Structure prediction request, 159 residues.
Amino acid sequence: MADKKKKKLPPEAQKYQSFEQKREVKRPVLINCIKAFFVGGFICFIGQLISTFYMYFFDFTEQTVANPTVATLIFITMLLTGFGVYDRIGQFAGAGSAVPVTGFGNAVVSAAIEHRSEGFVLGVGGNMFKLAGSVIVFGVFSAFVIALIKTILIQWGGL
Prediction:
């Protein structure tokens, strides 16, 4: 805690803050970063394998393989979340499992599983799309802004 804020606290709260700082467990930041790096990299490696599989067996091109690859990764994540496996991966890897697109699939399905007792429409559907809806809206808005900027640049710069 900053010294200025600490001085504003009553003496008992200051004692408690110092007591808490002594007892706080130090997190192994370097090890956590290494775990996140390798697990996130492995997830991306699996995505590359899926892309290569689709290009080789289903005649996709490098431009058209992205959407089925992302959909497959999200589907696999949803299955693993449903069986409770992805939660253990998340416990181990932290941000390494949350940053790739698989983290999005896990968040959506976790919200659906958590609120299934409230019913399919209000529980599962409503809570599942609290996260997904905001991500979709942000994605559509961002795409609109980028397209607008590109259009303006093409009109002015002849790109």
Q: What stands out?
A: The mean pLDDT is 83.
